[in-house]
Amino acid sequence: MTNNKSPIFTFESHGDYVYDVGWSPIHPALFAAVDGSGRLDFWNLNKETETPSASIDIDNRTRAINKLKWSRKGTEIVIGDDHGEMRIYEISENFARPENDEYDKLLKTLENLKKLNQESMNFNLNCNTDSNYINYLIESFK
Predict the structure, then answer these.
(1) What is the pTM of this model?
(2) Of 29, 43, 95, 130, which residue is the least packed, with the fewest Cβ within 10 Å?
């Protein structure tokens, strides 16, 4: 565990509460998330970090999806909704199976995300410092 309380990255694609998230048991960079709007999103961090790699809208978003679980093989996923229904989806082999270098790619992706996060924090710190200084100047002229 680290002493750093800041996340490496924040995913902001969901328009509703995220109820469950699960890493693929076979692909180091692939995870799925379900939300209250009835969406199942698949994120492959080695492909894209700003938007999901694939999404499924369940029943035109009329049901909150609140639980997910990957199969051990990583080629199926089961979801549960707020009406008590469970659905099993098959994930294509091309999407679910990792390439040989996926773990190395993920390490690079995480390092890049950490670097961007640090740059963002430094920028915000500088902006806050500049803002405080500007406020100080404004107050001193009153």
Answers:
(1) 0.76
(2) 130
